[in-house]
Amino acid sequence: MSASAQICPLGSTYTQQSSPCGTISPSISTTGAVKFCIGDSIGLSTNSAIPVDSVWICWGDGTTTTSLGNFTLAAYHNYGFPPDSCFCNGANSTQLLIGIAFYKDCPPTYSYDINFRPVTIRFKPKANFNTDTTCVGQVANITIPPCPAACASGSTSDTTRITWDMGDGTLPYNLWSTGISIPVPQHIYSSAGNYTVTLTLVNDSCGFSTLQKTITILDNTVLQPTLTAIPACAPGVLLVTNIDPFPR
Description:
The chain is mainly beta. 2% of the residues lie in helices and 46% in strands.
């Protein structure tokens, strides 16, 4: 069985060891922050007490790095998934396990030492919302679309600051979320017109995102229907005009 086949499916933080060819006793260290944003490079340095024949790294996203005939390995990896979108179904970060395996051959057997290191990948915020026509005096029709299923796994972490500017001169709404959802303000416009709504998401760890969309607010005037009788034989014809196209 190959080293990658052994370590990649494992989802535990335990260490596996076997030492018929000598104890490997590896040292492992990561470079950079404890938590990373999508697009950041993660550095991993390894060494061992005795020379080994190969070092395998399974990065937790299905990719591997291999060093043959070298017991010192310095590698960097870029995590480019999942795609940035909303808060990814209630999670703005996900944790992966990096597996590191050292192998020393001494036919017909070998020594090995497999270790795991957790790494947290934070999603970058992405502003996303829809608007629909609303009448004066009603709560503005603003909705948040669902996030892709690809972002369904993970756990919440950083708090994201959310600002809604409704474009009508009122003070912006400053809200906060830990990734469960993007709260939408219950805003009511006092006059008809087209307004520019601006949503800004700010995450102290992974940057910000801003999106603007127009919302149309209609006048709430109720038209009075006009009834006109048209001469005709019984039972007659009744003409109704000035009908409100937006019934309240």
